[in-house]
């Protein structure tokens, strides 16, 4: 029986990917993704993670379709490595954000793209020599999981962003709700229309180019593939997934999602720890 779904688009962190699983993805989710593809429904990724990272994961999942990465700022072919679409932050806006980051005691990382799609990671220098790689003092493996590696440490991010020809793709800053309120809206007001701010994680807020979000990425990808967005199943867990959930015909959010994300969903899956993405795939595609 045909499911009525012509494409599945999966967020990564909090949806199919977590540190608690060997290799980052549970066995049940891997089986479900494979079964969906074997049944003839293609699957791809829409994530805040950079193209380099997704290219390493895609073969494990049998994903060969173009992937939406860096919050929609880059769409690329995971097989060939070709960048099919790219949206960069204007240099003046990136320098403005870097100047702000230099004056704040919070870890901030900028992602700078080369012309070949490779990404350079530059981070504000840590606050002390306690073995961590961030101001907040968490262990280095936490920052490596969130941001990727290797990262260059710099005392002044503004100096790095002021070099002619830098190509700022996005930036991430830590915003710990245990220490302060959600900073997403305040940072959006501060940086203005040149940057789009979104919360991508309990502790992380990201800035991209104004039109770089997962919703725009989904529309660009479906146009390229000739797929009706209304026949797309999208699964996500955080506020940066909302534009994608709004564009998809069937929007599923994970069980640990906040109320604002749940309000955008047609169905709420179990949590990441409960293999919620697999449950959704089994229900809406494989059933």
From TrEMBL:
GO terms for cellular component: cytosol. It holds the Pfam family Hydrolase_3. It comes from the Bacteria. GO terms for molecular function: magnesium ion binding; phosphatase activity. InterPro entries: HAD-like_sf (IPR036412), HAD_sf (IPR023214). Gene3D superfamilies: 3.30.1240.10, HAD superfamily/HAD-like. PANTHER family: HAD SUPERFAMILY HYDROLASE-LIKE, TYPE 3 (PTHR10000:SF8), PHOSPHOSERINE PHOSPHATASE (PTHR10000). This is HAD family phosphatase. It comes from Caldilineaceae bacterium SB0661_bin_32.
């Amino acid at each position: 029986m045909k499911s009525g779904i012509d494409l599945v688009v999966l967020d990564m962190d909090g949806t199919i990917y977590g540190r608690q699983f060997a290799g980052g993805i549970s066995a049940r989710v891997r089986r479900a993704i494979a079964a969906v593809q074997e049944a003839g429904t293609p699957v791809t990724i829409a994530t805040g993670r950079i193209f380099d990272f997704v290219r390493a994961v895609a073969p494990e999942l049998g994903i060969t379709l173009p992937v939406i990465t860096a919050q929609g700022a880059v769409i690329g072919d995971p097989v060939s490595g070709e960048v099919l679409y790219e949206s960069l932050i204007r240099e003046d806006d990136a320098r403005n954000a870097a100047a702000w980051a230099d004056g704040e005691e919070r870890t901030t990382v900028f992602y700078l793209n080369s012309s070949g799609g490779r990404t350079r990671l530059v981070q504000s220098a840590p606050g002390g020599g306690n073995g961590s790689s961030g101001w907040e003092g968490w262990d280095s493996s936490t920052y490596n999981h969130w941001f990727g590696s290797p990262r260059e440490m710099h005392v002044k991010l503004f100096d790095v962003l002021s070099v002619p020809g830098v190509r700022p793709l996005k930036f991430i800053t830590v915003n710990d709700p245990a220490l302060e309120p959600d900073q997403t809206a305040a940072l959006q007001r501060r940086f203005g229309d040149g940057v789009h701010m979104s919360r991508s994680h309990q502790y992380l807020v990201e800035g991209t180019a104004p039109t770089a979000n997962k919703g725009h990425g989904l529309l660009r990808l479906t146009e390229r593939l000739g797929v009706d967005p209304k026949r797309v199943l999208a699964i996500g867990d955080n506020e940066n997934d909302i534009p994608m959930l709004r564009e998809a015909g069937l929007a599923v959010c994970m069980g640990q999602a906040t109320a604002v994300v749940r309000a955008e969903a047609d169905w709420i899956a179990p949590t990441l720890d409960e293999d919620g993405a697999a449950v959704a795939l089994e229900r809406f595609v494989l059933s």
